[in-house]
Specification:
85 residues; mainly alpha; 75% helix
Length: 85
């Protein structure tokens, strides 16, 4: 699973890893996504959560920020696809 690879390669302590893994799983559920090892979108979400998690303590804030940033990226990608298609 992607969670193991991305989160375990970070320099976070076990307690922080566990907290951010919970946020990651919650965020994927809110986006109706599954944790897949070959999915660049879920990897981007995991990396975003790690980055945000190093500066924010509150799990709900981390999830909200990650969702907003993911939605912004998806909107940009959709607009680019519409222009090409």
């Amino acid at each position: 699973m992607l969670t193991n690879r991305v989160f375990r390669n970070s320099e976070l302590h076990d307690e922080e890893l566990h907290r951010l893994e919970l946020v990651y799983k919650r965020t994927l559920r809110l986006l109706s996504l599954m944790d897949r090892s070959d999915d660049s979108l879920t990897e981007m979400i995991a990396r975003t959560i790690i980055r945000i998690g190093t500066t924010q303590c509150d799990r709900s804030k981390i999830a909200r920020i990650a969702l907003k940033q993911t939605r912004d990226v998806l909107r940009i990608l959709i607009l680019q696809c519409e222009r090409l298609g």
